[in-house]
Every structure is written in C-alpha cells, then in structure tokens.
Design brief:
Keywords: 4Fe-4S, Iron, Iron-sulfur, Lyase, Metal-binding. It comes from Gossypium lobatum. One of its GO terms (molecular function) is hydro-lyase activity. This is Aconitate hydratase. Belongs to the aconitase/IPM isomerase family. The structure is a single chain. By secondary structure, the chain is an alpha/beta fold. The protein folds into 2 domains: 104 residues, Aconitase, domain 3 (2-Layer Sandwich), CATH 3.30.499.10; 190 residues, Aconitase, domain 4. It is built from 13 helices and 13 strands. It is globular and about 75 Å long. 33% of the residues are buried. The model has no long low-confidence stretch (mean pLDDT 92).
C-alpha cells in the first residue's frame, strides 16, 4: 500500500470507524448487504452505479447495477418460500433443552461463581475491591497529570477495546505471558469478561490522535514526568504506581458514537479521574459518572487551545467535601501548578448521578442501597 493511499471498505452493520475491517483501512462506508456485494464486484467505491458498469459478463457485455438488483417481487418470493414458520417453531421449542455439549458441562454446586484464576477470558473484576458499606463521598482531583490530550470527535470506538488484539500491544504481551499463543489471541470482544485484557486494550485504537504526540497517530502517549513515549496502558500504570491522578483533555463531542460500557469502565481502570471536554455525548457522559469519573465542560468559547493548555500541566479540581454542597451544572475552578486557572461546568446533570458519584459509582451504589440492607 502506498503511504498516502486511503483504502476504503464497504460493510454491512452499524459501525464505520477507522480500522473496523482492517487496521490499515482509513475510510469505511455502511451499506446494505446487497450493496456490499455490488461494491465488491466493482472493486471501487468511486463509481456511479446509475451510469457506470460494475463489470463485464462472460459474453463481454457490460453489466450494470440495475441488471443484478432484485425487484421487490423477487425478494418477496424468496422470503415467502424460504423463511418458514416451522423454522422458528423448531428453534424456540428446543431453546430450553440446550444441546449435548451444553448439557454435559460440569456445573459447580455452590451459589457463588467459582473464579478460575488461570482464565484469560473471565476474571474477577476489581470494582468492589476494598469497598466498605459507607460511601466514600465526592472526591476532587489534585495535581493530576494529563494522560491524553484530544481534539474533537473522540468516539467510544477510539476508547473502547474493539477488534483484533495487535501483536505488539500490552494486551498481547499479557496473553503471551499467560501462555496464550498468538494464533489464539481472538478478539477484545471475546475477552470482554477479563478486565486485565480490556484495561490494556482501552485507548488501543491505531487511529488515536493524541496531541501530546505532536502529530504521530497511534495508541501511545507521553509520560509527562519523564518525557518517555509509552503505550497508554503502560503510562497509566506508571502514574498509578506513583500514586498520581490522571485526567483527559478533549474537544467537542467526546464519547460520540454507540454507547459502550467498556468506554467508561476502561478509563476508570486506567485510573483516570476526570475528563475535561468542550462537550460530551450524553449517554457516555452519564456512563463516566457511573464509573466515578468527573465530566467537566469548558465554558462556551473555551477549550484547551484557547486557554493555552498543552497537557504538560498538572491539574487540580476542587469539589465540595459534601455531596449536598454540589449542584447539577455547578461551576468549579480548575487550577494548574503554573498558576493558570479556568472555570468549568461539572456535568453531574441529575441528583441521581450525584448519588452515584457520592458512592464511587453506580455499581457501588447498587450494592450499598439494594443488596446491603437485605443481608
């Protein structure tokens, strides 16, 4: 592939982010399954189906889109003859009976799940580690480093682990260390039950554009104290080991795209305490709160660039010590160690979200309020 070539893919589905079909595919277009076939036959997306032929038949005659596209009557006839009620009846009549392989599985008698410490697919998550039945209360951020500095339109597909596990990634290193051959890496989707793999795959998108890298594209960042270029996961763990908080700077529409749970769970596991953005996709913003991460919006007309923020500063966000003193949509001051400060709107948009944050997240809230009192 030529260095500046933009390879395109046409896919049937509901995802069209960069790298969906192949890591080197930079342009993706969604289409119906028959259109995917038509574009495949044409071999290009730069075609006018109304005027240009898709190809030639065995007789050398030009074949146009209209020649292969089925009529509504043809589609209806195929559905009527092939999609039969008996298919659904047979499937749903046996749905509770399982199959021989399923029925022969050994099932532990305990009411509690028996975690397998050697499994690379399912791992006991750390959400409730060291949790007490008393809410920790709201927490601010003190002298945090910027883990990532983004522009506009960072989607949940950039954040959430998705697709194949790259051979040089932190997740691949983890799997190799646990005896998994490269051919058995599978995908992040198949290993979404293992937080160790998924945390390492957070922000692992090869098309990630991080301003700290000054133009370089990829899943890396700069560890500010040392200036080293590291994978996002390795940098986050180095901050965590040193007991240092981290934040994210972002532009408009942070978290746009489809809602993904790991787009919020992953950053929490990396130790990210706050995201300061021009604007958020609403569901992702709420998911961040649900994982104990503070969403903050720059004031209108402000962003990291206009405020002269490079991401090399340290950030302090002071929140009241009592949740009763925090109001949805309240303004707070963000200060840096360079004596630069600016006002942001804290995006706890409802009293319920404030309650979640007071408990450290929605999972802890549920445990303390719905499960704890009954025991």
């Amino acid at each position: 592939m030529l260095p500046d070539m933009v390879a395109a893919a046409v896919l049937s589905g509901n995802r069209n982010f960069e790298g969906r079909v192949h890591p080197l595919t930079r342009a993706n277009y969604l289409a119906s399954p028959p259109l995917v076939v038509a574009y495949s036959l044409a071999g290009t997306v730069d075609i006018d189906f109304e005027k240009e032929p898709i190809g030639k038949g065995k007789d050398g005659k030009e074949i146009f889109f209209r020649d292969i596209w089925p009529s509504s009557e043809e589609v209806a006839n195929v559905v009527q003859s092939s999609v039969l009620p008996d298919m659904f009846k047979a499937t749903y009549q046996a749905i509770t009976k399982g199959n021989p392989m399923w029925n022969e599985l050994s099932v532990p008698s305990s009411n509690l799940y028996a975690w397998d410490s050697t499994s690379t697919y399912i791992h006991k998550p750390p959400y409730f580690k060291d949790m007490t039945m008393s809410p920790p209360g709201p927490h601010g951020v003190k002298d945090a480093y910027c883990l990532l500095n983004f522009g506009d339109s960072i989607t949940t597909d950039h954040v959430s682990p998705a697709g194949s596990i790259h051979k040089d990634s932190p997740a691949a290193k983890f799997l190799l260390e646990h005896g998994v051959d490269r051919r058995d890496f599978n995908s992040y989707g198949s290993r979404r039950g293992n937080d160790e793999v998924m945390a390492r795959g957070t922000f692992a998108n090869i098309r990630l554009v991080n301003k700290l890298l000054e133009g370089e594209v990829g899943p890396k960042t700069i560890h500010i104290p040392t200036g080293e270029k590291l994978s996002v996961y390795d940098a986050a763990m180095r901050y965590n080991t040193a007991g240092q908080d981290t934040i994210i700077l972002a532009g408009a529409e942070y978290g746009s795209g489809s809602s993904r749970d790991w787009a919020a769970k992953g950053p929490m596991m990396l130790g990210i305490k706050a995201v300061i953005a021009k604007s958020f996709e609403q569901i992702h913003r709420s998911n961040l709160v649900g994982m104990g991460i503070i969403p903050l919006c720059f004031k209108p007309g402000d962003d990291a660039d206009t405020l002269g923020l490079t991401g090399h500063e340290r950030y302090t966000i002071n929140l009241p010590n009592s949740v009763s003193e925090i109001r949805p949509g309240q303004d707070v001051t963000v200060a840096t160690e360079t004596s630069k400060s600016f006002s942001c709107t804290v995006r706890f948009d409802t009293e319920v979200e404030l309650a979640y944050f007071n408990h450290g997240g929605i999972l802890q809230y549920v445990i303390r309020n719905l499960i704890g009192p009954k025991q």
